[in-house]
Amino acid sequence: MAMVRLKMIVSYDGSAYCGWQRQRDPIPTVQSMLEKATGEIVNHPVTVLGSSRTDTGVHARGQVAQMTVDTHLDPRRLRMAINSRLPSDIVIHRIEEAEPDFDIRQARSKRYRYVVWNQRDRSVFYRHYVYHFWHTVDLARMQEACGRFVGRHDFAAFQGAGGDRDTTEREIFHCGIHQRGPIIIFAVEGSGFLYHMVRTMVGTVLEIGRNQGDPAEIDHILASKNRALAGPCAPASGLCLEWIRF
Questions:
Q1: Mean pLDDT throughout 10-39?
Q2: Terminal alpha carbon distance of the chain
Q3: What span, in angstroms and rounded, lies between the C-alpha atoms of 84 and 179?
Q4: Residue 188's closest CA among 203, 177, 179, 178?
Q5: Which residues contact 110 (CB under 8 A, 6 or more apart)?
Q6: Which among 25, 55, 103, 154 is annotated as catalytic?
Q7: Which of 105, 176, 178, 198 is the most buried (most CB within 10 A)?
Q8: Which residues partner with 187 through β-bridges?
Q9: β-strand partners of 11
């Protein structure tokens, strides 16, 4: 049988995992779970590459991954077989044969969503998927702050310690925030993101929303390239990778 390169769309609840990227055993990661389940089906070691290395506790609706396998199963049957071996918090939505020139590293844009529970009492049922931020906030100020991220900037001030990217410049195509009852939703689409970048953007916008700074300070923080001037890194639980486009 010939080796075939496959593209997958994967969703997962990241609460129980130390991020996407494989680590030493027995540390649980999404990549290692997918590789184990697939290897059991195709009877050979498999490497699953993801387009986005989500952090510990971060979720995904539309992670894109690729792998090369030797199997007689068509993509539909292979998907069903792998899903039967995966835990309930990971599911493959689609598997298809990839184009010969498909490269998981060449994403054009990615969209993340961050959800905040903005009420005095914490949420019992959404606790794994939101950040409980009970302070009173000014939505208009936060919307203005979000707009200042749009464009190509150096996001060094919003990168967490340990980031290893060659350049800290990124282009943001859209960044907005809105509120529905106690739920505040921050959404950002960009060419790519640095380590902890989205969560630090959220932490900074929330501080501005509670009158701990002016929206115009976003420009100063970006220009400074100084992490100490940005806000706190919001918890992982509220963050979800929505989709990736190539």
A1: 97
A2: 29
A3: 38
A4: 177
A5: 51, 52, 189, 190, 191, 192, 193, 241, 243, 244, 245
A6: 55
A7: 198
A8: 113, 176
A9: 91
How far apart (Å, rounded) are the C-alpha atoms in residues 172 and 180? 24
Model confidence over 55-93: pLDDT tens digits?
Answer: 999 999 999 999 999 999 999 999 999 999 999 999 999
CA torsion sign for 191, 246, 160, 125 is positive
For the question of residue 55 being annotated catalytic, the response is yes
- Selection from 80, 89, 93 nearest residue 7 by Cα: 93
pLDDT of residue 1: 60
Q: Report the share of the chain in percent with pLDDT over 70.
A: 100
- The average pLDDT across 99-107 equals 91
Structure tokens at 158: 């919003």
How many CB atoms lie under 10 A from the CB of residue 103? 12
Amino acid at 124: V
* Sign of CA pseudo-dihedral 49, 54, 57, 62: negative
Spell out the domains of the chain, with CATH numbers in brackets: 3-97 (3.30.70.580), 109-245 (3.30.70.660)
Q: Would you report the helix, strand and coil content of the chain in percent, each value rounded to 5?
A: 25, 30, 45
| 2 band by pLDDT with thresholds 50, 70 and 90 | confident
The C-alpha atoms of residue 3 and residue 201 are separated, in whole angstroms, by 42
- The neighbouring-strand residues paired with 10 are 63, 92
Round to whole Å and give the CA distance between 196 and 25.
24
Contact call for residues 171 and 191 (beta carbons, < 8 A): yes
What does the pLDDT average to over 213-226? 97
Residue 169, strand partner residues: 154
Q: Which amino acid is at 232?
A: P
